[in-house]
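Protocol step 4 of 6: structure prediction from sequence.
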Amino acid sequence: MTTSGTYVPRPGAAPLSRMIAAQAALETKMLLRNGEQLLLTVVIPALLLVLFGSVDIVDTGEGEAVDFLAPGVLALAVMSTAFTGQAIATGFERRYGVLKRLAVSPLPRWGLMAAKTLSVLVTEVLQVVLLTVIAFAMGWSPHGNPFAVLLLLVLGTAAFSGLGLLMAGTLKAEATLAAANLVFLLLLVGGGVVVPLDKFPDAAQGVLGLLPIAALSDGLRDVLQHGAAMPWADLGILAVWAVLGLGAAAKFFRWE
């Protein structure tokens, strides 16, 4: 004989932390199964590191080319995941009604954004590990404070996530696809990733230095290549972009 009530269902939402973790795991699996996203977030940064680090294409100044390139490629990996990849994926989720349906689920909207952020961070960890292994194999010898590197990566992720969500939540999916890829290419060339900013005209250097990709790559380079303790100026630029981007995304993001 069974006890009364043993098999009575217990309806209700799962704990919020479990819902966010489950959604983050799903977002990460979807990203890693997407060939186009993997090309953008993993293959392209790795190829750029190997190509520009092995062939003397651009004069990167004194020292080994990989010492200049590795920090810039790490910054590019953050941008490709937090901005370009997230903007395109979220834009098409919005177009196909996925966000609209998720918005009425027990998972709150801020919980969905938190899950997407966790997915971005997990992907970035995998990127950083892979690119670091490649850079070490090419003779990279980093210096500096690991906490400063972590702070730069977190602020860079916040800045690019805000801009990516702002784009995905305000533009049509096709426009987001085109704009995100165009911005990726422009910042790859003009953001100090593989071409030093001092190669540009003096008038352009001041403007380019205020871009989030330039601040992130320059800050990482100051720490990892030159052993700087804490690049406050670059951290300040990234913090401003993070506040503006996330604030604008929260205000103007449309779920359908």
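Step 5 (inspection) to follow. The radius of gyration is 20 Å.
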